[in-house]
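Reopening this ticket.

The earlier resolution said the output was attached, but the attachment link was broken on my side. Pasting everything inline this time so it's all in one place.
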Amino acid sequence: MKVNILESKAALGKAAADQGVEILTKILEKKGSANIILATGASQFEMLGELVQAELDWSKVTVFHLDEYIGIPESHPASFRKYLRERFVNQVSPAAFYAINGETDPLKECSLLNGIIEAHPVDVAFVGIGENGHLAFNDPPADFETDDPYIVVDLDEDCRRQQMGEGWFPTLEVVPEQAISMSIRQIMKSKTIICSVPDARKAQAVKNTLEEIVSPLVPASILNTHGDAHLYLDKASASLLNPA
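Inline output:
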């Protein structure tokens, strides 16, 4: 995995978005369409802000949603499909946006989405890493074995505390305990992975990802085995890394 350390969150967001746009531009020139995955959360604000300003024909790009809570409506402030519609979809009008509906039968929703994404090989996945090292909502110990593209997962307390800490929920008690998440293996099928991870609160997770052995106990460590993964850090999130 190629590691890029930038001076600030703003610089990180621009560099990550610029690389994604460069790759997508070439793909659109070559085959006329592209498929991407978009993550959500506070760590993606800067990257998405740059992405929507890019000169790219988004009408040829299909967007897949990475994860969503089970049991909350799209009107809820923490809804990730709400997040993506407001910060990306409504601004660029992509070819299609396959949002995860967390209000319906989760197993049926997974089955529906699995059939769709299997027909759309992913060109670029824009992802992040959680404070507990999770990739999407695959909390430790993550399932590295399932081939199902979307799965139902349990959210651990560290993950739920992060969601509260970012201001999406007023108390821990109201943070959902389950979600629908893209699986580890499905994320790893992406041709290119661009991972944006700013802030000091992610520093330990970044250190574990890069310096520990690849393990379900550090889900994001699997990115080290991908052939074209790029990690974007700022000075704060890179602060605990051992000198090269």
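Reporter confirms the inline version is readable. Strands lie at 2-6, 34-38, 61-65, 67-69, 96-98, 124-127, 150-154, 178-182, 192-197, 229-234. The chain has one domain: 2-45+52-198+224-234.
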